[in-house]
Amino acid sequence: NTTAEFCETYGHDLATGAAVTPEEYAARDPKGRAVIKGAEYTPPPEQPDRDYPFLLTTGRVVYHFHTRTKTGRTPELNAAAPTPFLELSSTDAAALGVADGDLVEVRSRRGHVVVPARLGGVEPGVVFMPFHYGDDGTDDAPTAANRLTLSGWDPVSKQPFFKYAAVAISRVGASQDGD
């Protein structure tokens, strides 16, 4: 369904999001073949710097789906991953004086959260936080990852940039295990 005479939509420029006109499409008519578009790499609109030296990436944990409207009510899944956390490398944790389970404040140009630290499988300079959790209802310890992330969106897919941000991290409390 890619011939110029049959096609119902002509696609978008991957860098700008501008619609491809019927004339532009016809000039490159794929004649029924797949249309594979490559795009030049463009760096994220926000990079780590002196004030916000870590790259935060957000994502899923295996036990939950989106905002946990269903999985948060399933006792086994909720017990497996009940609360948000910040995963950071052992190297970065040592440099920050952070131990596994310590409370850390994660601050970006847009806001902050306070969550327990989890030391683990990320590269130095990168931190990970799941996006499944909303705020816990207190102003002193917000926990929603999207408080930190950018509010822009991809020009073609219109997907929000709720995936990354440059952040600073500081220890604000000892492990809840009493260490």
Helix content: 10-25%
The global form is elongated
Regarding quaternary structure, how should these chains be classified?
Answer: single chain
Structural class per helix/strand content? alpha/beta
Largest sheet: 6 strands, mixed
| Poorly predicted residue ranges | none
**What's the helix-strand series?**
HEHEHEEEE
SS summary, helix count = 3
Beta-strand proportion: 15-25%
Q: How do the strands line up in the largest sheet?
A: 2-4-3-6-1-5
Cα radius of gyration in angstroms: 21 Å
The average pLDDT value, as a whole number, equals 86
Q: Span between N and C termini?
A: 63 Å
What key attributes describe this structure?
6-stranded mixed β-sheet, single chain, alpha/beta, 11% helix
Helices and strands in order:
Elements: H1 22-27, E1 54-59, H2 75-80, E2 86-88, H3 90-96, E3 103-107, E4 112-119, E5 126-130, E6 164-173
Parallel strand pairs: 1-5, 2-4
Antiparallel strand pairs: 1-6, 3-4, 3-6
Describe the structure.
The protein has 179 residues and is an alpha/beta fold. Helices cover 11% and strands 21% of the residues. It is built from 3 helices and 6 strands, in the order H-E-H-E-H-E-E-E-E. It has helices at residues 22-27, 75-80, 90-96, and strands at 54-59, 86-88, 103-107, 112-119, 126-130, 164-173. It has a 6-stranded mixed beta sheet with strand order 2-4-3-6-1-5.
Please give a quick description of this structure.
The protein is of the alpha/beta class.
